[in-house]
Design goal:
Elements lengths: L24 H5 L17 H4 L12 H19 L6 H12 L4 E4 L6 H11 E2 L2 E5 L6 H5 E6 L4 E6 L6 E5 L6 H4 L1 H8 L1 E4 L2 E4 L5 E6 L12 H4 L4 E3 L6 H11 L15 E2 H12 L5 H16 L3 E3 L3 H17 L7 H12 L4 E2 L5 H18 L6
Helix pairs in contact: 3-4, 3-5, 3-11, 4-13, 11-13, 12-13, 13-14, 14-15
Length: 382
Amino acid sequence: MGGSGARADPGVPAGRAHLVRRTATGALVGSPPLTYRAPVTSTTAPPTAGGPAGEAGRGPLSPEEVAGARRTAGAVVDEVRAVVRGKDEVVRTAVTTLVAGGHLLLEDVPGVGKTVLATALARAVDLSVRRIQFTPDLLPSDVTGVSIWDPAERRFAFTPGAVFAGLVVADEINRASPKTQSALLECMAEGHVTVDGTTHALPSPFFVVATQNPADMEGTYPLPEAQRDRFMTRLSVGYPSPEEEVAVLTARSGGAGGDPLDAVRAVASAEDVRRLVHLAARVHASPELVRYVVDLVGATRQHPAVVLGASPRAALHLLRVARARALVAGRPHVLPDDVQALVAPVVAHRLVTADRGDLLADERSARAALADVVARTPVRGG
């Protein structure tokens, strides 16, 4: 299938021939796959995968740390919004998700700039980047990697898949089969990949930006609840205003200016991103504000319009991204406004309502339920 059939080799040990095959990884990402002669094993996820570790107990942030973090995050925001015009809040939330150490899901109709946003963010941050175009015939091993028999050394060598990068753009993720979609689960949740019983650590930081079309469009497979829950935030780019659309057409017509993405510069390094994630973990959240987060998430489980409420992971993600939002705004502490501004992007895609048979109605019901929850829940930590 797609050039991935098995090939016989007389030196292959019995029972392992099914692992010897070609992969499409190189074609997918536009570059030859890397090969690990000595696989890197790890049982510990990098800090940005399961949550920043080791920094939260180092005391309050200094004014210099807050100011430096704001400058770095602001530079990334400025680079991206120069390409994604008129979507300042979407861009800022995308960068905030990166600072929080989470993963981002961009969901919208084709042609509104989802891939442009993901690509611009990848170029603005100097991380290793791989782009995977998800298709129905994509295999899980094309994403995670595969062990291939090396006849010269008479052993299996692990060839990493396209997920081995600091920033992975998973384009049209819901066009792949559920089996392939699930290959990202361990990567996103734990920060490593396990193949043939060996665990391979992913780079740190590790950030997935996935795009998808609405699930009622032809040729799509809805993401299961377990995988949607792995995304810290879900954003919709939306249509541009008439003025913004005119500006886009003018900039790209007549061959003037070329591709706007070519002008995006790397303004932050991998070390900068790691530092931002660690600083965000140290942003102060009062006990009252933490309880406010718990109250909001807990209220979704009791709402009459909601069949399946938000999980404790949703509360964890909401607090982490609220800390990151405060840091990006130049504050060493979280406000209730930070939490309220991010409730919909963090929680809405995790809810299942009574209208779950109609995907658009389910989305509307989820957002209406969240608005009701925010309005009815007493504010704490203000």
